[in-house]
Amino acid sequence: MLKSFAQLRECVGRGAPKTVAVACAHDPHTLESVLYAASEGILNYILIGRGEDILRIGRELGHEIAPETVIHAESDEEAAAIAVGLVREGKANFLQKGLMQTSTILKAVVNKQTGIGQGRPMSHTALIEIPGYHKLLGVTDGGMIPCPDLEGKKAIVRNAVDMFRALGYEKPMVAAVCAAETVSPKIIETVDAAALKEAGLAGELGQCYLEGPISFDLAVNRESAKIKGYESPVCGETDIMLVPNITAGNIMVKALLEFAGTKMVGCVIGAKCPIALNSRSASFEEKYNSLLVCALMS
């Protein structure tokens, strides 16, 4: 169980450095996070983008970047293709998105001829550290798949479970959160949640325990579950929270970030490697922590 990003940092430091391919690395926050992690011995890097700008920004940040670690690219599309190619060739362990649109790097990832897709859906998991909760919590999918059907939700759960098992969890606890704990045909997510629980018990979702339908408060607070008479090993011990759709996940995580002092990283799972995927406006800390997660998963 990972309690914080600080503990995650300790786990990453025990392994050999991984190599990240950074697409469009000519971005101060992205470059700062990569160079800082490299200075700690956590990772190596290959920087793709506007070469002169990368070297200049590095100097402004107090680092002399070795020119041989920089690959010049004339466009975002070229940078994405080069970064993905490095993973295909085994020269990089994972990807980080720099100053570019998310769709650009994902298009390169899923390219049937040159990409690193695995023929299955990719999804986004936000890993968050919330004051008041005793461990890190994954929220999925608030960043990629808008309105998944039952099969889509199964794929999202499998990806998140793969992520947590790569982080060292033996059997992650998954909560399919809804507005109520009872199944109602009028609330489709409760129907899906019940079906997902059955799929989990049948072993269709990987090594995990999935509970649902379950409300947010019962998923994270065992006392609330006791009061309502809801019994499940997931109550108060949720590792992964499956949200009904992208809107619910996006609003929930952003509200926690804005009002609850929450820290977050974003990662895309389902390709041949993890992808550190943050907003272009994300802070240094968020991008640094995303590198830690992907390095540990790799």
Structure commentary:
The chain has 298 residues and is of the alpha/beta class. Helices cover 41% and strands 19% of the residues. The chain has eleven helices and eleven strands. β7, α7 (188-201) and β8 form a beta-alpha-beta unit. α2 (28-39) packs across α11. The protein is globular, with a radius of gyration of 19 Å. The protein starts with a helix and ends with a helix.
Helices, strands, pairings?
Elements: H1 5-12, E1 18-23, H2 28-39, E2 43-49, H3 51-60, E3 70-72, H4 76-88, E4 94-97, H5 102-110, E5 123-129, E6 137-140, H6 150-166, E7 173-178, H7 188-201, E8 209-215, H8 216-220, H9 222-228, E9 240-242, H10 246-259, E10 263-269, E11 275-276, H11 284-297
Parallel strand pairs: 1-2, 1-4, 2-3, 4-11, 6-9, 7-8, 7-9
Antiparallel strand pairs: 5-6, 5-10, 10-11
Précis, in short:
The protein is 41% helix and 19% strand. The protein has helices spanning 5-12, 28-39, 51-60, 76-88, 102-110, 150-166, 188-201, 216-220, 222-228, 246-259, 284-297, and strands spanning 18-23, 43-49, 70-72, 94-97, 123-129, 137-140, 173-178, 209-215, 240-242, 263-269, 275-276.
What descriptive keywords fit this protein?
298 residues; alpha/beta; 11 helices; 41% helix; globular
